[in-house]
Amino acid sequence: PQEGLALLLGIDQVLDMGRSATSVAGNAVATAVISKLEGELQLDRPVVVEAEA
C-alpha cells in the first residue's frame, strides 16, 4: 500500500497542475466577460506598459 500511495501522490501533483491552470484560465475569462458586461473593458489600451529606463 505504501508504494501505491507514493505513486498516487506523484500522479496527483501533475493532475493538480492541470486543475490549477484550468482555474486560472476560467478566472481570466470570467473577469473579461464581467468587464465587458459592465462596460469597463478597454481593448484600445495596451496591456503591457513599457518601463522607462
Description:
With 53 residues, this protein is an all-alpha fold. 70% of the residues lie in helices and 0% in strands. It is built from 1 helix and no strands. It has one helix spanning 2-38. The protein is elongated, with a radius of gyration of 20 Å. The mean pLDDT is 89.
How many β-strands, per DSSP?
0
Helix content: 55-70%
Q: Helix segment count? A: 1
Distance between the termini: 58 Å
User: How does the helix and strand content classify structurally?
Assistant: mainly alpha
Question: Secondary-structure element order, as H and E?
Answer: H
Brief overview:
The chain has 53 residues and is mostly helical. The protein has one helix at residues 2-38. The mean pLDDT is 89.
List the helices and strands and how they pair.
Blueprint: H1 2-38
Question: What distinguishing features does this structure have?
Answer:
mainly alpha, 53 residues
